[in-house]
Write a structure and sequence with these properties.
The complex is a heterodimer of chains A (317) and B (163). Chain A is an all-alpha fold and 317 residues long. Chain A has a single domain, classed as Formate dehydrogenase/DMSO reductase fold (Up-down Bundle). Helices cover 68% and strands 2% of the residues of chain A. In chain A, strands 1-2 form a two-stranded parallel ribbon. Chain A is globular and about 70 Å long. With 163 residues, chain B is of the alpha+beta class. Chain B has a single domain, classed as Alpha-Beta Plaits (2-Layer Sandwich), CATH 3.30.70. In chain B, 23% of the residues lie in helices and 20% in strands. In chain B, the strands form 4 sheets. In chain B, strands 1-2 form a two-stranded antiparallel sheet. Chain B has a two-stranded antiparallel sheet with strand order 3-4. In chain B, strands 5-6 form a two-stranded antiparallel sheet. Chain B is globular, with a radius of gyration of 16 Å. Classes of the chains: A mainly alpha (317), B alpha+beta (163). Chains A and B meet through strand 1 and helix 3 of A and strand 1, helix 2, helix 3 and strand 5 of B. Strand 1 of chain A pairs antiparallel with strand 1 of chain B, so a sheet runs across the interface.
């Protein structure tokens, strides 16, 4: 038995850490979603699908720019010293994932704009008809389009991984101390993006392909979740206790029912039946996947904040 | 609690926040109980995770003494350092930047002790240069038993509790 009585009661810190509200989980989800959309769009560019007029690679970058800007707004709202945000761009700190993230985000926008140039949206062309020349120039070089695709895929992967590594590096929270979160958040972002694009795609081939891809991503995600637990449950006492937050503690119900059940397993079954033509494609499974992706971020952020080095077997806090 | 009060007055710590706090640690099973009372603060870690994760360099080691400090002009208030600290030593100052104990840097550079050390009525807090093997603190660590908080986090804390 070890009992601590602490006289400190700092806002956001005590009795349990709660530094991040809705803004960070929402931003992490949007970051993952945009990362997935960039990889999907980049893949279509790489495969030369720009020949298809209905290719989703023509409107995904526009949506990505809108979503990412909303995500960055959430990130900005979370900052406590808002007017100093530009300090992020006066330095680069190699050990800080936030610094990496700030610079990755700065590269993501040009990548999305390059993708947009391949076929500019009408509302831009109407205002700036001269930009059409750029489109013509790019389309004369199929290899340029392939390279833009690769650029988008690489930056998408970096964006997706960074949203997880952001949490992994925070030493103080045992639940987060595993870099597999980077892979988990990337795969979750891919599955959310595949679900989202599947819902809005106008091309039948793409819808079928993305439903199949999403089944792959969801299966992979379940494996990564299992690997996360294997890693953390064979770690130190603090990490093991942190894992019980998700296994049997206050976050277990929402994690297993909503994140794993409704967010991964059930939509996986529905979509497996759909791609085997047993049932029709409906937005039900994609919506479940997206909701699961949002909740995954909330559960991991909140449970991680709750976890602490001093909470382990025999120590009451 | 004199250290807590002295810290608040010396550093104008905003109301409702603490840079220094008291922990009563009760160990064992009744009736074999042990109690340790600690005055806790930022551990001025040698490998401080708050410095590692800071995206702007606002959290840094001072050239003088390697004290972990915060440059409020560089801080964007992202709170990564708060999440990174295993000791929960940091908080957000109502003015928006991260805040914590800096060993009363303004006093230490003048050769004085931190306020908490000077006011302690039982002289139970020692402060000094760990790099000097002849300093009082180095001698104490050589002759007495001590422990540090959460050594398993690997941060190499520099606050030692003599037992």
């Amino acid at each position: 038995m070890d009992e601590l009585t602490i006289t400190r009661h700092n806002e956001l810190i005590d009795p349990t850490l709660h530094i991040w509200g809705w803004q960070i989980p929402v931003y992490l989800f949007i970051g993952g979603l945009v990362a997935g959309m960039m990889i999907i769009s980049g893949y279509f560019l790489f495969k030369g699908r720009t020949r298809e007029t209905k290719c989703s690679c023509f409107y995904l970058p526009v949506l990505s720019v809108i979503f990412l800007s909303l995500g960055m707004l959430a990130l900005f709202l979370d900052l406590e010293h808002k007017l100093h945000f530009w300090r992020l761009y006066t330095t680069f700190k190699i050990t800080s994932p936030m610094s990496w993230g700030a610079w990755i985000l700065l590269l993501v926008y040009p990548a999305l704009i390059l993708n947009m140039i391949i076929r500019l949206p009408d509302f831009i062309l109407e205002r700036f008809p001269k930009l059409g020349n750029l489109t013509d120039r790019v389309n004369e070089h199929p290899y340029a389009i392939k390279n833009i695709g690769v650029f988008n895929m690489v930056l998408g992967a970096m964006l997706g991984v960074y949203t997880g590594i952001l949490l992994s590096t925070l030493t103080g929270r045992p639940l987060w101390n595993t870099s597999i979160l980077g892979i988990l958040f990337l795969v979750s972002g891919l599955s959310s993006a595949a679900a989202f694009v599947h819902m809005i795609a106008r091309d039948v081939y793409e819808r079928e392909l993305l439903a199949k891809a999403d089944n792959g991503f969801l299966s992979l995600e379940l494996i990564v979740v299992a690997m996360f637990f294997i890693g953390i449950l064979t770690s130190s006492a603090s990490q093991k206790t942190a894992a019980t937050l998700l296994l049997s503690g206050p976050f277990a119900a929402v994690f297993w029912v909503f994140v794993i059940g409704i967010g991964m397993v059930i939509p996986l079954f529905i979509q497996l039946m759909a791609v085997n033509h047993k049932i029709k494609h409906t937005p039900v499974a994609p919506i479940m996947v997206i909701a699961g992706g949002v909740l995954l971020r909330f559960v991991f952020v909140y449970a991680g904040e709750y976890s602490h080095w001093l909470i382990h077997a025999g120590l009451v806090r | 609690m004199d250290c807590v009060v002295a810290c608040k007055t010396e550093n104008n710590v905003p109301e409702g926040f603490n840079r220094v706090w008291i922990v009563e640690d009760v160990m064992g099973e009744f009736p074999d109980l042990n109690m340790e009372i600690r005055s806790e603060r930022c551990n001025q870690c040698e490998e401080a995770p708050c410095v590692t994760v800071c995206p702007t360099g606002a959290s840094h080691y001072s050239d003088f003494g390697g004290i972990v400090q915060i440059d409020s002009e560089l801080c964007i208030g992202c709170k990564a350092c708060i999440g990174a600290c295993p000791y929960d030593a940091r908080f957000i100052n109502p003015d928006g930047y991260a805040d914590k104990c800096d060993f009363c840097f303004h006093r230490v550079v003048k050769g004085e002790n931190p306020a908490c050390v000077d006011v302690c009525p039982t002289h139970s807090i020692y402060f000094g240069d760990l790099d000097d093997p002849n300093s009082e603190v180095s001698q104490l660590l050589q002759s007495r038993k001590y422990h540090v908080r959460i050594p398993e986090a690997g941060t190499k804390p520099k606050i030692f509790y003599l037992t």
